[in-house]
Amino acid sequence: MFFKTGKVKKILIIEDEDKLRKLLSRIIGLEGFEVIEASDTKTALKKLEMFDISVVLCDVKLPDGNGIDLTKEIKIKYPLIEIIVLTAYGNIPDGVMAIKNGAFDYMTKGDDNNKILPALNRAMEKAELSKRVLSLERRLDNKYNFGSIIGNSPLIKNVISLAIKVAESDTTVLLTGETGTGKEVFANAIHQSSNRKTKSFVAINCSAFNHELLENEFFGHKAGAFSGAAKDHKGLFEEANNGTIFLDEIGELAMDLQVKLLRIIETGEFFRLGESKPTKVNVRIIAATNRDLQQEIVKGNFREDLYYRISVFQLNLPPLRDRVNDIALFAHHFMQIFAGKANKKIDGISEQCQTALNRHNWRGNIRELRNVMERCVIMAEGNKILFEHLPPEIQNNSRENKEGTIVDLDLSQAEKSHITKVLQMTNGNKARTASLLGIALTTLYRKLSEYKID
Q: Domain check: are 364 and 310 in the same one?
């Protein structure tokens, strides 16, 4: 299949009368469009394969077919193309059938020549809008589908495998894990892989609002429900109807809101503030927390019945420090994003820098790494991210561990490194060092001699 490149919008004229086709082609070409010509259906279908056509102008009577039938065939193969059907004789049944088959408009030749250009412009606007919408939908799908989740470690691959399975159902999902591990990314991917993907995905952080505001955000209110409520307000559960709502940090939810959330899960109903009639919704709930909800139940902070309803299917996202082999993947991914935004040509990360990244604890997980790489790109002057571009705390941690981390060293090397650090911490006070190490002073002196520690 061949496609002609270029941004000029293309129109295909299908007309067997040469003089009329050439006249229309000249008029339309003067408007800045690129015009492709065909005199029959066979040629037209070939042209549609060869060129990226946006609008078709088609005669009803053609040597080898009928324009109204051709309209249906084109719309099946190329649904984003808009078609204007032209006829020498106005015929209402034909016009109705043309529109039914997907035509944008149906016009009579001769009498409506002055209307063709405005109709073409309207059809072009619709065709281009449809293309933009499709492009945005594809970008959204690509951004949030499971294929876009970074990671080759067995831990994350197992979570992805489970998430793909649960996405196909309407089951409530609980995502657990530390802050910054990508819980909202997984929630989006589950939604985009479900049968609700064409409906709304609504996300809210339950810790971002006080109790009153959160209840209003959840359920909305009726006009006059409180001072300043001048009109009805639709809540997020209503916005997410037939779609998915993502409740981040659900462990922060107040007890009375937990009761109302439980009612939605069990009955699909809730009450707007100031309203006595319940509102019915069909919403899939995906919740997330970095808290141990079972411990919160013991403390009296979370309802046990709600916990069992939201944790029907639980996914625990591993921390980045347990996915060391994925750190380089994330680092290069974020490097490319921020280099592109900053219009910098950065094509790599130095070995020393990558080693430091791998050894960092990443308490903030993927979110912290993202911020670090943004800083590195800002600091970089050449085509590589270097060790000195890292934040001071990561540089310092790496220098402290320059002899190697515990997993890289044998037992004697680890012991030597540990004694040296404690000795430095006590400013050489050997009695204090022995006490902190939990060994006798004579044992310490023996080890200092053994390891040749001054």
A: no
- Tell me, what's the pLDDT at 412? 65
CATH of the domain at 337: 1.10.8.60
Residue numbers of the chain with a pLDDT score lower than 50? 1-6, 403-410
Q: What is the pLDDT of residues 96-106, one digit of tens each?
A: 888 888 999 98
pTM: 0.60
User: What percent of the chain clears pLDDT 70, i.e. is strictly above it?
Assistant: 91
Whether 117 and 255 share a structural domain:
no
Write down the pLDDT at residue 399.
67
Q: Give the largest Cα separation in the chain, rounded.
A: 112
In this structure, which amino acid lies at residue 434? A
Q: Which residue has the tokens 């399975």?
A: 165
By three-state DSSP, how is residue 66 classified? strand
Sign of CA dihedral 344, 350, 356, 360: positive
Give me 360's structure tokens. Answer: 């960092």
For position 242, what pLDDT does the model report? 95
247, β-bridge pairs: 204, 287
pLDDT tens per residue across span 270-307: 998 988 899 999 999 999 999 999 999 999 999 999 99
* Confidence (pLDDT) at 451: 80
Token pair for residue 100? 């039914």
Q: For 293-358, give the DSSP string.
A: HHHHHHHTSS-HHHHHHHTSEEEEPPPGGG-HHHHHHHHHHHHHHHHHHTT----EE-HHHHHHHH
Domain boundary among 140, 156, 171: 140
Residues 106, 227, single domain; the answer is: no
CATH number of the domain that 422 lies in?
A: 1.10.10.60
Count of domains for the chain? 4
Per-residue pLDDT, 404:
47
Count of C-beta atoms within a 10 Å radius of residue 111: 9
**348 pairs with which residues across the strands?**
384
Last residue of a domain, one of 140, 169, 200: 140
CA distance linking residue 259 with residue 278, whole number of Å = 15
The C-alpha atoms of residue 21 and residue 127 are separated, in whole angstroms, by 22
Q: Domain limits at 20?
A: 10-140
